[in-house]
């Protein structure tokens, strides 16, 4: 890795405590090592897991913490062993910046399941220094965890794909759900959920959005192209949709009962958990046993899947629904995100922001 001497400095916006309030923070970056890519950040998406981390919801936060893990930027410098990237190219980086490279998961190109993975922030890198994320002017990332951005895709549009997009794409690919003609459900219409609708529709699925109220019905059907909309508290409609779905992508990031959604699945249907929840979930076993249903989970996606998903996104001419903000709006954006007041992903215009205010 890079030398520990004469390190660069950069400026990011960091949380100092569980209040989660971000403010400017100057810190050191390692120099560009042989396998590293030095990136000028242009855009960074805002994910619900950023909220969990800055507020210490999972009880493992370390401060100061610069969040942000949906990074799109420009290569400023490459290490001597870097062959895949050149100065000036547009690249992306996601939630991981390291792995052991020797376990079964790493050898199978599913490094997101490596037990020694290194998070892009709130973690410690191999040189012993804390990792910091994409709400910053620059980053240094090992080339293995960097992807090229295909020509024709807008940078601000791409940012949410590097977590939310691949988080949906990965389980659809892994569980054999890419084929057309399936009936899928998207539970929760936030940043990940809206990606789920778009990607599932692009695979040729009949898509039902499931939400706790009807306030997003028009957006789901008219703007995102969903085929149906279910309000989970409407017992009659839920009963009418019983045994109708091949899978449900559950994006809800807070505790919720599983029984209502298990009843919507066909025989051999899958409930795929994606929301980060720090309380136990419960269900009664007959709802699973009597339909040979599966409750499973999926975590982001691999670098290979990220590259596949970006090409798929370009091929299908898809677009993200985003709200672009400057970094000085980030605390308000996080406050709104906590209230689910965003359609459907905040993206920070890092390049166009002033970081020293």
Distance between the termini: 32 Å
Count every helix, treating DSSP H or I runs of 4 or more residues as helices.
11
Based on CA atoms alone, the radius of gyration comes out at 20 Å
Instruction: Give the structural class.
Output: alpha/beta
Largest sheet: 7 strands, mixed
- Return the string of H and E elements: EEEHEEEHEEEHHEHEHEHEHEHEHEHE
GO molecular function: oxidoreductase activity, acting on the CH-OH group of donors, NAD or NADP as acceptor; zinc ion binding
Cofactor: Zn(2+)
Protein name: Cinnamyl alcohol dehydrogenase
Family: Belongs to the zinc-containing alcohol dehydrogenase family.
Structural commentary:
Residues 1-5 have low confidence and may be disordered. This protein is α/β, with parallel strands linked by helices and 357 residues long. The protein has helices at residues 48-54, 104-107, 155-158, 164-174, 191-202, 217-223, 235-240, 259-262, 286-289, 303-315, 330-338, and strands spanning 8-15, 22-29, 36-45, 71-78, 90-93, 96-98, 118-119, 138-142, 146-148, 183-187, 206-211, 228-231, 245-250, 265-273, 294-297, 322-325, 345-349. The strands form four sheets. Strands 3, 4, 5, 8, 9, 16 and 17 form a seven-stranded mixed β-sheet that branches. Strands 12-11-10-13-14-15 form a six-stranded parallel β-sheet.
């Amino acid at each position: 890795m890079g030398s520990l001497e004469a390190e660069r400095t950069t400026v990011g916006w960091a949380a100092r405590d569980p209040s989660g309030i971000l403010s400017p923070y100057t810190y050191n970056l390692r120099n560009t090592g042989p396998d590293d890519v030095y990136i000028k950040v242009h855009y960074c998406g805002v994910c619900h897991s950023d909220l969990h981390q800055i507020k210490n919801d999972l009880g493992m936060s370390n401060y100061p913490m610069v969040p942000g893990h949906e990074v799109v930027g420009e290569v400023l410098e490459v290490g001597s062993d870097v062959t895949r990237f050149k100065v000036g190219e547009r690249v992306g980086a996601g939630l991981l910046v390291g792995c052991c490279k020797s376990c079964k998961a790493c050898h199978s190109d599913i490094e997101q399941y490596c037990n020694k993975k290194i998070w892009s922030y709130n973690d410690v890198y191999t040189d012993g220094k804390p990792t910091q994320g994409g709400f910053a002017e620059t980053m240094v990332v090992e080339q293995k965890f960097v992807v090229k951005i295909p020509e024709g895709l807008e940078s601000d549009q791409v940012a949410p794909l590097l977590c939310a997009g691949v988080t949906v794409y990965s389980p659809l690919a892994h569980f054999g759900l890419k084929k057309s003609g399936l009936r899928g459900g998207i539970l929760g219409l936030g940043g990940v959920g809206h990606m789920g609708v778009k990607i599932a529709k692009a695979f040729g699925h009949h898509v039902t959005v499931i939400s706790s109220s009807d306030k997003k019905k028009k957006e789901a059907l008219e703007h995102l192209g969903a085929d149906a909309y279910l309000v989970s508290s409407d017992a009659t409609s839920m009963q009418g949709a019983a045994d109708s779905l091949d899978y449900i992508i559950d994006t809800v990031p807070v505790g919720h009962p599983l029984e209502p959604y298990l009843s919507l699945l066909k025989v051999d249907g899958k409930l795929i958990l994606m929301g980060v929840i720090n309380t136990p979930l419960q269900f009664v076993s007959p709802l699973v046993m009597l339909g040979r249903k599966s409750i499973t989970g999926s975590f982001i996606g691999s670098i290979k899947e990220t590259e596949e998903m970006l090409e798929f996104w370009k091929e299908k001419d898809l677009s993200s629904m985003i709200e672009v903000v400057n970094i000085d709006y980030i605390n308000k954006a996080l406050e709104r995100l906590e209230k689910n007041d965003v359609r459907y992903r905040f993206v920070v215009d890092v390049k166009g922001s002033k970081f020293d205010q």
